[in-house]
Amino acid sequence: MKFIGITQRLLENTSYYEVREALSVEWGEFFKEHLQGFLPLPLSYVIPFSTYAQSLGGNLGGVILSGGNDLNSLNPNPLSSMRDEYEAQILTHCLRYNLPLLGICRGAQMIAEYFGAKLELLEGHIGNHQVVDISSGEKFEVNSFHNYGIRALGDCLEPLVRAEDRSIEAFKHKHKPIFAMMWHIERAPKMGENILFNQWKIGVESQSKE
Question: Is 94 a catalytic residue?
Fold first, then answer.
């Protein structure tokens, strides 16, 4: 069986102190429908990503940076810092070894910031809203849940989808199998039926055959 690593939300318990790693069950449903043949592998932040990569070898088809938590640059706190540092490890590994990487919501923000983008406070990005495919002009609806958006990307990234306020909702790396979108494909099954996700999935399937 092949695996796809996926990062988790970090939560601090309020009744007694405990830091927890959590992943929505919607991701399990998404894998059942769109990623048959792969098992989700929730990544623990206390285990170096290199340990997963070395242990799994060719059985690791790709990685998803999931949503949840703010970037530390936007809301400094120990949990965001822990997650940023771990996901930076993943990005470095994926760049070096051409491992397919998909960023969702916070994951997209993390990728954008890693390559030099600056995020800014936006309005109208909570709930369903319309976006447009830059190349085709096609409009479609997505479900976003973020307060910070991307106005401009680093030189190595290419914008693919924009919101009505011209902020960037999806992009890809120009030379590496790295893709990102600001909406939650796991929360609505049809959200997974898009060219961006399919391009990443092709890379995952190719990786697993090597």
Answer: no
pLDDT range class, residue 12, cuts 50, 70, 90: very high
**Looking at the DSSP assignment, which residues form a beta bridge with residue 149?**
120
Bridging pattern class, strands 38-42 and 126-133: unpaired
156 is catalytic: no
**Torsion sign (Cα): 45, 76, 153, 106:** positive
Q: Is 159 exposed, middle or buried (0-12, 13-18, 19+ CB in 10 A)?
A: middle
| Structural domain range at position 48 | 2-209
**Degrees, nearest 5: CA angle 22-13-29:** 20
> One of 105, 125, 146, 169 is an active-site residue; which one?
105
Whether 184 is catalytic: yes
Q: Report how far residue 3's alpha carbon sits from residue 191's, in angstroms, rounded to the nearest whole number.
A: 22
- pTM of the predicted model over 0.90: yes
Structural domains counted in the chain: 1
Q: Which of 87, 113, 169, 186 is catalytic?
A: 186
Tokens 């796809």 sit on residue: 4
DSSP letters along 1-18, please?
-EEEEE--EEEE-SSS--
Tell me 183's DSSP state: B
Q: One of 125, 146, 173, 184 is an active-site residue; which one?
A: 184
Q: CATH number of the domain that 128 lies in?
A: 3.40.50.880
Q: Does the pLDDT value for residue 144 go beyond 80?
A: no
Judged by DSSP in three states, 73 sits in coil
